[in-house]
Design brief:
The complex is a heterodimer of chains A (100) and B (375).
Chain A: H1 3-13, E1 17-19, E2 23-28, E3 31-36, E4 41-45, H2 47-55, H3 62-72, H4 77-93, E5 97-99
Antiparallel strand pairs in A: 1-5, 2-3, 3-4
Chain B: H1 3-8, H2 13-19, H3 38-46, H4 50-59, H5 66-99, E1 104-107, H6 108-115, E2 128-132, H7 137-146, E3 150-151, E4 168-172, E5 175-182, E6 204-208, E7 211-215, H8 218-229, H9 238-250, H10 257-263, H11 266-274, H12 282-285, H13 306-309, H14 316-324, H15 328-334, H16 344-374
Parallel strand pairs in B: 2-5
Antiparallel strand pairs in B: 1-2, 3-4, 4-5, 6-7
Helix pairs in contact in B: 2-9, 4-5, 8-9, 11-15
The chains are: A alpha+beta (100), B alpha+beta (375).
Chain lengths: 100, 375
């Protein structure tokens, strides 16, 4: 993890991510794809990333999403947190989620 | 994508296999080891074949590589979404027009997706084309504006009295849906017409989103597809080849071939000439004599649009070649000359006379447009 990411993590915890408009999640040909209608862009997601995207409802904070997911994986909290930050950053970079 | 790259698609076995893919006439892909390179994917998309290519490689489990497959899957999903959006918009349009008593026939991709292809998303379409009686077309336009469409600018004065009104557009589900209202399914550049007043056969119905829609009868459909696919445009898109061969193949036993031979013999010759692109499906080989084993030049190429040939800066020599020496394959089709016959007379007389007619028609329309603007 880079220093910049480490710095970003605590800042992100209280922020509230929400799915950006124009994106829809589709299961297609045994893959999960996040499709942006307006930009004609497609992002491939794994099952965990799809779940994270689905939890970005504009009401839960990043911390609450972490708590929800780690509840299911109590033995690997650090890994889950790392994957979640990574996923949120990737989704954010592609404009698929927005923070408020 | 250049014209040359588009023509190269005519030599790609994977793309050619898409023409009849998912029909009983498909080519087996078990031996195909071609990867889905960026160029093939671009060609597939430009030729309107991405969904068919996706269908082909997934159903036949062709070894094409995961990198290309990821891009192709994205393209196929995109077309599926577009197809759903367009079908929803079309349903809305047909409801609105029917409520106002306007007879409407659905043309091209929007109809073929339902009548010819196994799944609607396999036939991509750029816009929705509708045929409406000339007396109703302005009213139909007003109705579409009333349900949320916006008007676009009128085309250039050279295409005044066009066979369709300027496109209407609508934002639906984040996409731009384009609709063209035609009073004639064929461009004024060809001598025939297909209007609601001169249909050769009664329209046929098809079901779409739970509503019954109408489209051209079989002879008119085939006529329309063959003329539309070979309109000036530099190359024939392979999806148009697929449209013609799939249509003729699917409805081979219902098409009035006798009438076609008598009234529209060029349709038979067009199908024959498509035999130089891909093997004709068996039912068609019983109806149309397969083309002779000759080397016909310029397969896939058509005639460059006049607007491109005559727009400066253009070298005179290039313009002359593009105007008067188009592809032999296209000339055989367009002028209904059997592949066995010479093109000499056509090259020296018929084609130059046709070019002159096209140029004169554009200038006549230009002057009529100016006169109309002054009134």
């Amino acid at each position: 993890m880079t220093k910049q990411t480490e710095h970003e993590i605590p800042l992100m915890n209280d922020r509230v991510p929400r799915c950006a408009e124009g994106f829809t999640l589709e299961q297609f040909d045994h893959e999960i794809l996040l499709f942006n209608v307006a930009k004609d862009e497609t992002l491939y997601l794994n099952a965990t990333a799809a779940m994270i995207w689905g939890l970005c409802d504009g009401e839960r904070t990043v911390r609450q999403i972490i708590e929800l997911i780690t509840a299911g994986y109590p033995d690997s909290v650090a890994d889950v947190e790392h994957d979640l930050y990574d996923t949120l950053q990737t989704l954010s970079r592609h404009g698929a989620i927005e923070f408020s | 994508m250049t014209t040359l790259q588009m023509i190269e698609a005519y030599r790609n076995e994977l793309l050619l296999a898409c023409v009849m893919a998912d029909t009983a006439q498909h080519t087996s892909m078990h031996n195909v080891t071609t990867g889905l390179t960026a160029e093939i994917l671009e060609q597939a998309e430009a030729h309107g074949l991405s969904p068919l290519l996706f269908e082909l490689v997934t159903t036949q489990r062709a070894a094409v590589g995961e990198d290309g497959m990821r891009v192709l899957r994205g393209l196929a999903l995109r077309h599926k979404r577009h197809s759903q959006t367009r079908a929803d918009v079309l349903t809305k349009i047909l409801h609105a027009l029917a409520k106002n008593g306007i007879e409407t026939l659905v043309l091209k991709g929007a109809a073929l997706a339902h009548t010819v292809y196994a799944k609607t998303e396999l036939r991509p379409m750029g816009d929705i084309d509708l045929l409406i009686g000339k007396r109703d077309i302005e009213r139909a336009r007003e109705i579409l504006l009333g349900i949320g469409f916006s008007a676009t600018n009128a085309p250039s004065a050279f295409v005044f009295r066009h066979h369709h009104l300027p496109a209407l557009v609508l934002q639906a589900d984040g996409e731009l849906v384009i609709v063209e209202l035609h009073h004639d399914a064929l461009s004024g550049d060809v001598r025939e017409s297909i209007t609601l007043d001169d249909l050769r056969e009664d329209p046929v119905s098809f079901s779409m989103n739970g509503v019954t829609a109408l489209t051209l009868g079989h002879v008119d459909s085939l006529h329309h597809l063959c003329r539309h696919g070979f309109e000036p445009g530099e190359y024939v898109r392979l999806i148009h080849v697929a449209d013609i061969l799939r249509y003729a193949n699917k409805y081979a036993d219902r098409i009035d071939w006798q009438r076609i031979r008598a009234e529209l013999p060029f349709l038979i010759n067009t199908i024959r000439c498509l035999g130089y692109v891909t093997a004709l499906p068996q039912p068609l080989q019983d109806i149309v004599t397969p083309p002779p084993d000759l080397r016909i030049a310029g397969v896939g190429r058509t005639f460059k649009p006049l607007s491109k040939v005559l727009t400066p800066p253009r070298q005179t020599k290039t313009a002359f070649r593009e105007l008067f020496m188009p592809s032999a394959w296209w000339m055989h089709v367009y002028y209904n000359i059997a592949p066995e016959s010479s093109l000499l007379r056509c090259r020296l007389l018929d084609h130059p006379a046709q070019v002159l007619r096209w140029v004169m028609r554009r200038y006549r329309n230009f002057f009529l447009s100016k006169l109309s603007a002054q009134r």
